Amino acid sequence: MRIGIDDTDSPAGMCTTYLGAVLARRLDEAGIRVEEIRLVRLNPNVVHKTRGNAAVCIECTGDPGTAFSIACRLVDDLAELSFDETNPGVVVADRPLPSRFYKKAVQDFCRIDEAVALLEEEGALFRGYKNQRGLIGAAAAAASAFDDATWELLAYRSPGRWGTPRLVDRQSVFTADCETWPHTWDTVDREYGLVVCVPHTPDPVLFGIRGDSPGSVKKARGYVLSEPPGIEQVFLTNQGTDAHLISGRIGHLKEGCSYLLCGTVTSPPVTGAGGHVSFSLGDGEGSVRCMAYEPTRGFRDTVRLLFPGDEVTVAGSYKRQSINLEKILVSAVVPVVRTRPPRCAACGKRMTSAGTGKGYKCRECGRRSREPERSVIEREIACGWYEVPPSARRHLARPLVRGPPGHEGTQL
Ligand code: ATP
């Protein structure tokens, strides 16, 4: 059977993944065999999310009624029910729910009544607390089917330490990365010297290590020195798989969905207020603004090297009529020709403009020329994929260390 849970936390505390890890232990104590625990990321653009729009799916064998009452009791105990925006959902289904619901929840938007109708149709046990919104994520988790997957080891703080500063040895985290990359990723941001795997929010997570197998994340974890964690859990997850991306077309984009789009750069990149860099992408029919926001740091320098006419594929979410860039493929760069007044053929001095449409004139000897001097500028950007740094990466975005979009992922 599958158990799905979602929407148990608030900005002040808790985390659905922690609740899932505790639930797995309670099920085990009750004689229900836990086979797999999944951390299922859903559409990163839903407005009601607390942090990363995560839900949890536990695949296990045992009595569904017992599992349902254990799960509901735990949600009663641990969920931040007093917070207005916390609306937990608990689902127990004796088989995986139809994967189309998961697909819609990761790439699009679902309604609460859609989730309830599906759960009734499938004969699942379910409980939606308060406004029942958590049933969307809980049902999507129980419907999850991963084409590609990665793993994350999450170490949680013991409850007495929640809300206090986290004690994680910085150097040990860099060692963990150094010893296990590229089989693990986003533990640190080497270029900017940042620790990425330790959150700053008041939830129970101490640190999380992402990687390509349970062995890789456990190996990396072995290097990390920290305060004594409470519990630790390895999750199978759709993080780092681009599961949110839809192959789309400019002019046919839906607010809050995420796309892979091919097109041509149609305006030079400009740096706006706050250091955000933008350019227009066109495909002959329409155009859309692409944004590299300030937190994407050096990625903006790459974007600034684009030139109108360059052919690119962009990946990112369509929000407020812009694509928020996660990565970009430069497939062809145009030759850029610079024109300037020519040198005088008689005296060698650089000519100046003789007025609009009147060519050039030498101020020394009066000689005229109609043609400017043309030179091809060496482009500073090579064809290939470019991505935002680990500190700016979204949970679902596939890091290039796993291979670019379209490459084969993990076979499950
Ligand atoms: P938590 O740790 O509690 O899961 P979170 O950051 O993952 O925190 P939630 O608090 O779960 O976010 O809030 C997300 C809410 O949005 C949930 O109620 C979930 O059911 C709902 N939701 C998830 N995906 C979609 C979707 N595609 N369309 C509509 N609602 C969604």
What does this molecule look like?
With 412 residues, the protein is an alpha+beta fold. It has 4 domains: 2-142, Alpha-Beta Plaits (2-Layer Sandwich); 150-237, Alpha-Beta Complex (Glycinamide Ribonucleotide Synthetase, Chain A, domain 4); 245-334 and 379-398, OB fold (Dihydrolipoamide Acetyltransferase, E2P) (Beta Barrel), CATH 2.40.50; 336-377. 20% of the residues lie in helices and 31% in strands. The strands form 5 sheets. Strands 5-4-1-3-2-11-6-10-7 form a 9-stranded mixed sheet. A 5-stranded mixed β-barrel has the order 13-15-16-18-17. A 3-stranded antiparallel sheet has the order 20-21-22, with no helix packed on it. Helix 3 packs across helix 5 (134-142), helix 4 (112-121) crosses helix 5 and helix 6 packs antiparallel against helix 7 (214-221). The site of adenosine-5'-triphosphate (ATP) has 26 residues, from strand 3 and helix 5. Residues 6-9, 15-16, 42-43, 46, 48-55, 87, 89, 105, 109-110, 133-134, 136-137 line the site of adenosine-5'-triphosphate.
Instruction: Give the strand order, joined by hyphens, for the main sheet.
Output: 5-4-1-3-2-11-6-10-7
CATH class categorisation of the largest domain: Alpha Beta
Q: How many strands, which pairing sense, and closed or not: the largest β-sheet?
A: 9 strands, mixed
Q: How big is the Rg? A: 26 Å
Percentage of residues in strands:
25-35%
Sum up the overall morphology in one term.
elongated
